[in-house]
Amino acid sequence: MLYTSQNFFLFFPIVCLFYYIIPKKIRWFWILFISYFFYFSWNQKLPLLLLFSTIITYIGGIGIQYLKKRDKKPRKFGQKIILFFCISINIGILFFFKYLDFFFLNLNKILNRIHFIQIENPFSFILPLGISFYTFKVISYLMDNYREKIDAEKNLFKYAAYVAFFPTIISGPIDRAISTIPQITDPKKFGFENVKHGLWLMLWGYFQKFVIADRLALMVNEVFNNQDLYTHSGVIGMIASIFYSFQIYCDFSGYSDIAIGAAQVLGFTVSDNFRRPYFAKSIVDFWKRWHISLTTWFRDYLYIPLGGNRVSKIRHLRNIMIVFIVSGLWHGAGWNFIFWGFLHGIYQIIENLLTPVFHKKLHNIKTYGTFGFKLAQTLFTFFLVNFAWIFFRSESLEHAFTFIRGIFRFNPSLLFNANLFTFGMDRTNFEITIFSLIILFVVNWLQRDQTSLRVKIDHQPLWFRWVLIIGCIFFILIYGIYGPSYEVNKFIYSGF
Predict the structure, then answer these.
(1) pTM of the entire structure?
(2) Quick check: is 1 in a domain?
(3) Other CB atoms within 10 A of residue 283 CB
(4) Do 167 and 240 sit in the same domain of this protein?
(5) Which pLDDT score is estimated for 288?
(6) Which end of the chain is more exposed for a tag (fewer CB within 10 A), N or C?
(7) Residue 77 has what pLDDT?
(8) Does 34 fall in a domain?
(9) 104 near 119, Cβ under 8 Å?
């Protein structure tokens, strides 16, 4: 069931209505039931895999908790064995379904070069939706239990409700047990402010998805999927790459806003996933703003255990590279994703090495800290991020390098004639896109002081709020990409 489907628009109000009608003590059961129903609607067999991971990690958490109480010294050998066993099973499941084809593909390339018989992958399964996300959720639960940040949840069904929590199971944010399970156990009363602000956030998410992301996809898909289009005119490839940067942002930020908003309507607080990432002034700053739940997950459960920055300089830089290569692999089973992660790792390492040097010299420049200087930093950061997105969007490394070579065949005349509007997006859609991106910029700019825009809107007159809400709804209905003539676009991150 897609968040953008008609079924969800019928499903969600019913879920909310029954959630607030039934007694508080059993609302967790309703969350569990409806979450599995939501997941079951995608595929009838997938909930069995989700249930297996849930039971294994539930038992593992109980085992770790039992040994913590029995042993005087924390983190004894038995706890580590349980932790290693449970994490290995879940990583193994993720590898089997997501990376086995990639493994056999590369193994056969090696075997072919040394003239050995190739091995055929005997398994063929679809990638379970949300497996990368809920795998990280259960691992964080085990790790926090092992680190004594939380106690093991004794109620299997409440724990299962946390793992399968339907707003976030498909594409995050990757919520933590330490914050979500207490909200499941002790749900909030109906609050008009929560419902109102949640619906506003969902509305903004749908604007980003229907109006911007899916419209940008018209040109992005046409250009990236047709090599002849960008190898003969670099300007088209350049525009398509920039459009993809905004497509993936609006697609994923839109999903996150819908998920966070849906959770808020039910009284749940889910952490933000984006904070104006394209306003970042450095790559380090970008990763503090982009997919925050994943970035903090890697920080807490991979980067810090590797030693973080508390080790020698060489090991610190190594830790950065490991995190970003693993991040690339997490996003997809392909060398283009690995290279995307590697590229961001290189960005981080260069920035880490050069920042102390430049910081001393730049302070002596009179224009340091001015609007123009900050704008230059932001544009340069966007250029680096946009360049890396080419590898992320491309089907393979070869495809990405071909795309980049095509960009250098620059033909600016296309910017000034009607041929520009023959690459999947006509003039009308192009103009709507530019106007919508201006709206996106203004909305992001208004949140520059970290104050929620919904709070700012709350301080406006009632008539202004209703004009804004109704205007947004009609804008989506009139200019959104949907209906029988368009193929429903899944959220990009639902494939990871």
Answers:
(1) 0.92
(2) no
(3) 23
(4) no
(5) 95
(6) N
(7) 83
(8) yes
(9) yes
Same-domain status, 164 and 257 = no
Residues 213 and 114 in one domain: no
Cα distance between residue 73 and residue 39, in whole Å: 41
Q: What is the pLDDT of residue 294?
A: 95
| Residues of the chain falling short of pLDDT 50 | none
- What is the predicted pLDDT for the residue at 356? 79
Q: How far is CA 175 from the centre of its chain?
A: 12
| pLDDT score at 232 | 58
Q: Look at residue 301 in the predicted model and tell me its pLDDT.
A: 96
Distance CA 129, CA 170 (A): 6
pLDDT of 450 reads: 64
Residues 159 and 237 in one domain: no
Domain limit, last residue, from 187, 213, 244: 187
pLDDT tens-digit readout, 175-224: 999 999 999 999 988 889 899 999 999 999 999 999 999 999 999 998 88
Do 317 and 352 contact (CB within 8 A), yes or no? yes
Domain carrying residue 95 = 6-187
Q: Which of 187, 220, 238 is the last residue of a domain?
A: 187
Q: How far apart are CA 142 and CA 57, in angstroms?
A: 7
pLDDT of residue 488: 53
Residue that is written with structure tokens 């539930």 in the block:
58
Q: What confidence score (pLDDT) does residue 129 get?
A: 85
Total domains in the chain come to 2
Task: Read off the tokens for 220.
Answer: 């992005």
Query: Which residues form the catalytic set?
Result: 331
- 344 conformational bin, left if phi > 0, alpha if psi -120 to 50, beta if neither: alpha
Claim to verify: residue 207 and residue 179 sit in the same structural domain: no
Q: Are residues 214 and 275 in the same domain?
A: yes
Indicate whether 209 and 180 sit together in one domain: no
* Residue 170, token pair as written in the block: 């498909």
pLDDT (0 to 100) of residue 212: 95
Q: Would you state the pLDDT for residue 122?
A: 72
Question: Domain check: are 202 and 179 in the same one?
Answer: no
Q: What is the dihedral of CA 365, 367, 369, 373, to 10 degrees?
A: -110
